[in-house]
Design a protein that fits this description.
The protein is 41% helix and 11% strand. The protein has an 8-stranded parallel barrel, surrounded by 6 helices.
Length: 460
């Protein structure tokens, strides 16, 4: 299918409406903002955790992308995190019913737990549930001593004497079972965490899954032994049936959720927007969604999809800006679950989106810092933005070639400094092991660099 046929199919049954017809539907960084309706108070949808009886807000706060003073990534010393804005976001979220906050020692260059602890520490302990992770990805943290130090430090940074939800972080990443056993079994850490749960210092124990399905299946097969209180999975309407098409190492969310539901294990949802990709869709997809629900934001479709499954305990969103938080609150205060027709509509939308996929980068920044200074997420996200906006011409014969060429090249230089662009990649592969989506990052960077060079030389 060529590009013209793709967009024709995408718009079938819906008026092709320009984004200009929906003023205000794009927020910062291209994220879709909601309408002008007030954010409801005292209307949050809650779910009950069967293990502990916790009454958990269906919207959970992901603390991976706290705002910075510069507007960019956090500095290595954490000094750039805008604590005042973090406090204001947390206050507003709690005021509107959000009570689940998810962080990690790996987020915000290692300073998310501290910023989260400072913000939450200003509220009564019973007002929130805090989730963090044993994020011992690097081999130098696999020893019992190093893993134990990371675990103990989380209590200090979060300023708590118990953790509500503790996760084994990113099981299935890297070398699958071999890495899992080195991180949690050989060093005795999983046995230790089970003892901590028994002692009450961990109230719920679970894991977040990425990658090798054999690890996921093994851990569920051991449910009678470990008694997982919850499991965190990636679920959205694109990954529901297309995760393996996007990346053969991933697993369709339909299978992951089904296995958890079959065992009665609550699911916590990460990446409901695929790192923002489902709020920054092509204008024709925006038109398709807006034609169906003119007053809802593009992002709200993804959040309602994730929240509509009864086995979901909470849906995480990394809300950097107040407008993101307010729009998401509108989706969950209260949740209006999707009906069968709306689910089928999203499945068909996902099918059409897969005809012209973008790079599955979720902007988690686990690949950073690059030892050679490349802005890897910036490069991939600029490419995806151009895909979504129709600015990836197939050849110089495309009618909109000159406009698309300028948009790609000018936008590339503006969003990624030249010394940090894809042409500086030497293929060292150090980034590949850290990518939860198992993207062959050097290959994608070479592809994007070739494309940019062809545009510069006018030889596409």
């Amino acid at each position: 299918m060529n590009r013209r046929e793709f967009f024709k199919r995408l718009g079938e049954g819906a008026a092709v409406v320009s984004l200009a017809a929906f003023p205000g539907c794009r927020g910062r960084n291209g994220a879709s903002a909601g309408g002008e309706t007030a954010v409801p108070m005292d209307r949050m949808t809650f779910r009950i955790n069967p293990s502990t009886g916790d009454r958990v807000s269906l919207l959970g706060y992901g603390c991976m992308r706290w705002p910075t003073i510069s507007g960019g990534s956090a500095r290595d010393d954490g000094s750039d995190i805008d604590q005042e804005t973090v406090n204001r976001l947390v206050d507003y979220a709690i005021e509107h019913g959000v009570n689940y906050f998810d962080t990690s020692p790996a987020y915000c260059r290692g300073f998310s737990e501290r910023a989260t602890g400072l913000a939450l520490g200003r509220h009564p302990r019973e007002k929130f549930f805090v989730a963090t992770k044993l994020s011992n990805f690097a081999p130098e943290t696999w020893s019992r001593e190093a893993s134990m130090a990371m675990y103990r430090n989380s209590f200090r940074e979060l300023q708590v004497d118990y953790i509500d939800y503790l996760l084994l972080h990113g099981v299935g990443m890297g070398n699958g079972m071999r890495d899992f056993e080195a991180r949690y079994i050989d060093n005795g850490m999983l046995d230790f965490l089970l003892q901590e749960r028994e002692a009450g210092r961990i109230r719920n124990l679970g894991f977040s899954y990425h990658g090798d399905i054999r690890v996921f299946d093994y851990l569920l097969s051991q449910h009678d032994r470990y008694k997982w209180d919850f499991v965190q999975i990636q679920l959205n309407y694109l990954d529901w049936r297309h995760a393996r098409q996007i990346n053969p190492r991933n697993t369709d969310a339909e299978y992951l959720y089904g296995e958890l539901a079959r065992r009665g294990i609550p699911a916590i949802i990460m990446e409901p927007l695929l790192g923002g990709r489902l709020s920054q869709v092509h204008d024709h997809v925006v038109a398709r969604l807006k034609e169906r629900e003119p007053d809802r934001s593009v992002a709200s479709w993804a959040f309602r999809f994730a929240g509509s499954f009864p086995g979901v305990l909470t849906v995480l969103s990394g809300m950097t800006y107040m407008e993101h938080l307010q729009d998401n609150l509108r989706s969950f205060c209260p949740l209006q679950p999707l009906d069968a027709g709306e689910r089928d509509f999203l499945y068909s939308t996902a099918d059409l989106m897969m005809r012209y996929p973008s790079v599955p980068c979720n902007d988690c920044k686990y690949c950073m810092p690059c030892p050679y200074g490349l802005d890897i997420p910036g490069i991939l996200l600029h490419y995806n933005k151009c895909v979504n906006e129709g600015n990836i011409p197939e050849s110089s014969q495309d009618p909109a070639y000159r406009k698309a060429r300028r948009a790609f090249l000018v936008g590339y230089d503006r969003s990624v400094p030249r010394l940090r662009q894809a042409d500086h990649c030497i293929g060292c592969n150090q980034c590949v092991h850290h990518c939860p989506q198992s993207i062959d990052i050097p290959r994608e960077l070479r592809r994007i660099d070739r494309f940019a060079e062809q545009l510069k030389q006018g030889i596409l």
